[in-house]
Amino acid sequence: MSAPGENLRINSARLWDSLMEMAKVGPGIAGGCNRQTLTDEDAAGRVLFQSWCEAAGMTMGVDAMGTMFATRPGEDPGALPVYVGSHLDTQPTGGKYDGVLGVLGALEVVRSLNDLGIKTRHPIVVTNWANEEGARFAPAMLASGVFAGVHTLDYAYGRKDLDGKSYGEELTRIGWKGSEEVGARKMHAYYELHIEQGPILEAEGKTIGVVTHCQGLWWLEFTLTGREAHTGSTPMAMRVNAGLAMGRIFEMVQEVAMKNQPGAVGGVGQVKFSPNSRNVLPGTVVFTVDIRTPDQAKLDRMRAEIEARAAEICAHLGVGCAVEAVGHFDPVTFDPALVETVRRAADTLGYPHMNIISGAGHDACWAAKVAPATMIMCPCVGGLSHNEAEEISPDWAAAGTDVLLHAVLETAEVVA
Questions:
Q1: Region 34-63: what's the mean pLDDT?
Q2: Do the Cβ atoms of 313 and 248 come closer than 8 Å?
Q3: Residue 282, preceding bond cis, omega within 30 degrees?
């Protein structure tokens, strides 16, 4: 059968209704969502997603990391599946679309194929990867990392949140520890739809981002050890001030990132002071430096400079400094053939598009280690994400999912 024509579209109203229904599970305090990994809210979102998948005629499998795989059978029992998905977990103050659009867009692809009676040679598997965000359990993309052989299952189960609760314990507690061996599934291809999480598509007036690469990343967790002391009665020259060392490292990270322009970013998003009292100098400060660039040599150079200069800053102030890499992936080049499939789909549908590099990490980055993979992006208002004010339009959601539908159909091979 020839490639589907431009009149083939998803049910955009149903997609939007699904997004709004999922947003009611683990609502935030300012219009977004707080559905963090392995919380009761995450469990409730999983139950809703499973009910929708089963209503669409799919069968659900769950692996030992808690990743959900809903399968629509193909006509060829020997054909490897086309996987499509993203994640349902959110940041503590997350939006309604980050990750969720990719999962529910994939579900809508299957629903639309059912409506139209379209069969494919390859099975299609709608996927909800566990712990993509890494907000509660670092590193991000943990389950897909185990799937791709980047992390061991024991390592993942041992990751702890700020309250000391482990991933393995919490996965068991919410009842979503599956029996499937992680990584045993084989993929024909992997597609992931996502909001851009940046301002480029909207600024350029493009509806679709054809994702060619993903930036590499290091998360470097610094533990600075000073001496707790009274802020009022300890002379300035006699302090061992871990907080001051932290401030100077923050400035240094900014300087290193700016020195490596264009195409590099660096910053700090999480800090923990101890004892965190108004009139006590901190004895311990823990924070995570996040650096990213699509250039491997630049990424390695930035990490080396930041670690070396941080050690010098701390030594000068008499502060202890320990560094642990708690998250990392190298820059990713997505499969050129699948990238071209996405571009063809956007052309067929008449959506303005452009090549784009993902600034954020995604499960597709690890999937690309085990199968051909690529991503599709749609704009988000003002480029805002990881924020409850994150917003997209119904038209953008529909356009991205339309392109996903056409790309998946080409790869999964329509059967007449």
A1: 98
A2: yes
A3: no
Q: Does 92 sit behind a cis peptide bond, omega within 30 degrees of 0 on the bond before it?
A: no
Amino acid at 413: E
Q: Rounded to an integer, what distance in angstroms lies between the CA atom of residue 156 and that of residue 141?
A: 11
Place of tokens 């897909």: 144
pLDDT of residue 7: 87
pLDDT digits (tens, 9 = 90+) for 216-272: 999 999 999 999 999 999 999 999 999 999 999 999 999 999 999 999 999 998 999
In 3-state terms, the chain is what percent helix, strand and coil (to 5)? 35, 25, 40
Q: How many residues in total does the chain contain?
A: 416
List Cβ neighbours of 398 (8 Å cut-off, separation of 6 or more). 9, 10, 12, 15, 16
**Is 38:171 a contact under the CB 8 Å cutoff?**
yes
Q: Collect all residues with Cβ–Cβ distance below 8 Å to 281 and sequence separation of at least 6.
A: 226, 227, 228, 229, 230, 231, 234, 239, 240, 241, 242, 243
**Among candidate residues 287, 290, 299, 303, the one with its CA nearest the CA of residue 247:** 287
Strands (E), 105-162: 119-120, 124-128
Coil vs helix vs strand at 27: strand
Tokens read off for 393: 């339009």
242 contact partners, CB below 8 Å, separation of at least 6: 224, 225, 226, 281, 282, 283, 284, 285, 319
Specify the pLDDT at position 329: 87
State if pTM tops 0.70: yes
